[in-house]
Design goal:
The complex is a heterodimer of chains A (389) and B (388). Chain A has 389 residues and is mostly helical. Chain A has 17 helices and no strands. Chain A folds into 2 domains: 254 residues, ABC transporter involved in vitamin B12 uptake, BtuC (Orthogonal Bundle), CATH 1.10.3470; 86 residues, no CATH class. Chain B has 388 residues and is α/β, with parallel strands linked by helices. In chain B, strands 7, 8, 9, 10, 11, 12, 13, 14 and 15 form a 9-stranded mixed β-sheet that branches. The chains are: A mainly alpha (389), B alpha/beta (388).
Chain lengths: 389, 388
């Protein structure tokens, strides 16, 4: 250390510091995003219940992004921590162990972190495929334990959870307003911490591990230690998300540990994009709103449409794929096509689009390029104006 | 850049989801049933029956238009709770109804109390549900009703040694408890009590254990929808040939799945409150209309939905369109009517259903498998409550 300190600051260190600082700077789009969430409290009072779920799902996705997007750990069992936190919060409240929700929330996070720490050593072993199996296995084991124990209520769910007012002052109301604000504040605070973590030298070292663990080890990064740390942190995040769910619904059931929950959160992070923290949040907003919309329009067959959107997103990129899927859905809905005909129509369209994929991609990439060019020109003009005056 | 585009997109999407205004002269019913997932058949049946009821009886009651809002909860209780809450808060529904599984009904129960909105259980069958809120009434059945009656029948028919096999959740535990208690009280013996997982069960290993115990009969309860798999594995393992009688509440020989179960199921004796072959004119008309409209056979879940709508309609008539929760529940108490399943009523003390339980045997009628009723136990209350 002393030898390093006595050396004059190297340009490399300066570059790294500058790059970290530029990452840490708040961008206008980010500020707009958080202002929009604050506005939603006042502008969408009738949507607080679903928004609460979105905020919780967003936090859960953020947690997965920490390990997937930054450390490259794939997990198909992230619901293990979510569910653990959910049950922990429920049991703490039901048996009056910790009555105050915020303290219970922290306690659930700590408990989930402990579980994350213990199981992280399993995750260190092997490559992606092994990790998928190990994480999946941990979630399955936990789910069965919750199914068998009396304290969790088994398949009937944890009944009779009654929450005290938050900080002794803000009771959970029927309209879900308190729960929404509470979830948003929790999400924002944890987001700030996550942002600090990933923009620190520690975060940078995670990225290098994700890039190439061997080389990271060769330049002196303690790979296993870093992975254990981030996995534990992510587990705490997921546990807090689960605890939020229990506290806002005053109920926990086996579904918090379901494989579907792990798979959904993986989808969400992939839809929104990994490795920039907002991916999980945006993915959660899109996924949940689209799911809710489709399930309302088409309670029986909404899964078909959701699946179509995902396939299209993979085939033609997120934005264009989603637009195309929306068009197909719109055509089927507006023409009131019966479901079977809709399937046939969709499959035919899919086949045509699949064959024409290279041509379509050429067109879409040209559109993107042009849009980018327009944007740069606009930005250049905006930047020039004050100087010209 | 993509990131920012997506953020803008998210904001635009959020703006689209604004809810429409509510009208004063409509009565809204939030129908929450599983339309997807493992319990989807329950939702399909109830949704169909509710639509049929509205086709037959119109959509206007006591001068008000009745609107049903169908929601899918996939039988996931936290979905149920959120959807019920949204329906009550945003859509201002006057009733919440449906509830495919017990955990879903239990999750929504506190909301009924808080908002004073009547909750009509059209499917879930655990005894305790109606005790969770004074605003709950049930038009389906309780597991205890069928389980106690089939135990009585078994004792009369020289079944002394039985193995119970139930799905591992509250209704299963109910079925097991009420059947076992009754059998033991009557001098019978339960040689083995087996619980199978609720989700994605493979019955084969459990069936082997049941076969090894060599009972006179196997008492089986699985939720609506799993009966087909069970019966197939039961015959594949040769338990039918080993002389083990298959008995239970009627869920296992669900009318929805019965036509596809194959001849192996013939002779299965069950106790239940509804069979599509119930010999009454009302039921014949019901089944004919139902099959004509939807191309599948109505099952016991469908009558839960049909009678649930009837209960709502009649309660509204009694209150003259008043949608006050207390008045509606008061109107429902003690209500009696003729259902496709036979005469039924709502117990004024427990708000639970009182109905005939029929003993049925699976037989082939005109080339189709049906539960043929051959004995009736009249006006059975929920033993889960009378026992107290």
């Amino acid at each position: 250390m002393s030898a390093l300190a006595s050396l004059p600051p190297k340009p490399l260190v300066a570059t790294a510091a500058a790059s970290l600082a530029s990452r840490a700077r708040w961008k206008p789009a980010e500020i707009a995003f958080w202002l929009a969430t604050v506005a939603s409290i006042f502008l969408l009072p009738s949507k607080h219940l679903i928004l609460t779920e979105i905020a919780i799902l967003g936090l859960f996705a953020l947690s997965l992004d920490l390990i997937l997007g930054y450390a490259g750990i794939v997990s198909l069992g992230h619901a293990a921590f979510f569910g653990f936190g959910a049950y922990a919060a429920g049991i703490l409240a039901k048996y009056g162990i910790i009555k105050e929700p915020v303290l219970a929330l922290l306690a659930s996070g700590v408990l989930a972190a402990a579980l994350g720490f213990v199981t992280s050593f399993l995750v260190l072993r092997g490559s992606d495929l092994t990790r998928l199996m190990v994480t999946l296995g941990v979630a399955l084991v936990l789910r069965e334990i919750a199914n068998q124990l009396d304290i969790t209520g088994g398949a009937d769910g944890l009944q009779g959870v009654v929450m005290e007012p938050i900080l002794g002052h803000f009771p959970f109301d029927m309209f879900g307003r308190t729960a929404y604000i509470y979830s948003l504040v929790t999400l924002f605070v944890l987001f700030l911490i996550a942002r600090r973590i990933v923009n620190s030298p520690f975060g940078l070292s995670l990225r290098s591990i994700k890039g190439n663990p061997l080389r990271a080890a060769a330049i002196g990064i303690h790979v296993n230690g870093r992975l254990v740390t981030i996995y534990t942190i992510a587990a705490a995040y997921a546990g807090i998300a689960g605890a939020l769910l229990t506290q806002s619904t005053q109920f926990a059931s086996l579904s918090v540990l379901d494989f579907e929950r792990s798979a959904d959160v993986m989808l969400i992070v992939i839809i929104g994009g990994t490795g920039y923290l907002y991916g999980g949040l945006i993915g959660a907003v899109l996924f949940k709103l689209v799911q809710d919309y489709l399930a309302n329009v088409n309670p029986q067959y909404w899964q078909f449409w959701l699946g179509l959107i995902l396939v299209m997103m993979i085939m033609f990129g997120r934005v264009y794929g989603a637009i195309m899927a929306a068009l197909i859905f719109a055509i089927c809905t507006w023409t009131r096509l019966p479901f079977m005909q809709s399937i046939v129509f969709t499959l035919v369209v899919l086949a045509v689009l699949g064959i024409a994929r290279p041509q379509i991609l050429a067109v879409t990439s040209r559109i993107t390029e042009r849009a980018a060019a327009i944007q740069t020109r606009l930005r250049a003009r905006l930047a020039r104006k004050p100087a010209e005056r | 850049m993509l990131r920012r585009d997506m953020m803008l997109g998210a904001a635009a999407l959020a703006a689209i989801f604004a809810s429409p205004a509510t009208a004063q002269d409509t009565v809204k019913i939030g129908l929450i049933v599983p339309m997807t997932g493992q319990q989807a058949s329950t939702g399909k049946q109830i949704d169909a029956a509710v639509k049929l009821y509205q086709q037959q009886h119109g959509t206007t009651v006591a001068g008000k238009k009745v609107e049903v809002i169908l929601k899918d909860d996939g039988a996931v209780p936290d979905n149920t709770k959120r959807i019920a809450q949204e329906l009550i808060v945003n859509d201002k529904v006057n009733f919440i109804a449906g509830f495919g599984v017990t955990p879903a009904a239990l999750a929504a129960a506190p909301l009924a109390t808080q908002a004073k909105v009547p909750l009509i259980v059209m499917a879930a069958g655990t005894s305790i549900i109606t005790e969770r809120s004074p605003y709950i009434a049930r038009t389906s059945f309780t597991l205890a009703q069928s389980s106690v009656i089939i135990a009585d029948w078994a004792l009369k028919n020289n079944i002394k040694k039985a193995v119970t096999m139930v799905s591992d959740y509250a209704p299963g535990a109910d079925a097991e408890k009420f059947f076992s208690d009754r059998i033991k009280a009557g001098g019978g013996e339960i040689v083995s009590a087996i619980r199978v997982p609720l989700a994605n069960p493979d019955f084969a290993p459990f069936l082997q254990r049941a076969a090894d115990a060599k009972p006179d009969a196997l008492f089986i309860f699985v939720p609506s929808g799993q009966g087909g798999t069970f019966v197939r594995q039961f015959t594949e393992r040769g338990l039918d040939k080993a002389g083990i009688k298959l008995i239970g509440p009627g869920d296992v020989t669900d009318d929805d799945l019965l036509p596809g179960m194959g001849d192996a199921v013939i002779g299965t004796v069950t106790a239940h409150m509804y069979s599509a072959s119930h010999p009454s004119k009302m039921n014949k008309d019901y089944v004919t209309a139902f099959e004509k409209a939807y191309n599948f056979r109505p099952n016991f879940m469908s009558v839960g939905g049909y009678d649930g709508m009837h209960l709502i309609y009649e309660a509204l008539k009694k209150t003259n369109g008043d949608t006050d929760g207390d008045k509606l529940i008061a109107a429902m108490k003690g209500m009696k009517w003729e259902s496709p399943r036979g005469p039924i009523s709502i117990d004024p003390d427990t708000r639970d259903i009182v109905q005939n339980i029929y003993i049925r045997k699976v037989e082939k009628v005109n080339g189709q498998l049906y539960n043929q009723e051959f004995a009736t136990f009249e006006a059975v209350k929920d033993p889960g409550k009378t026992a107290k």
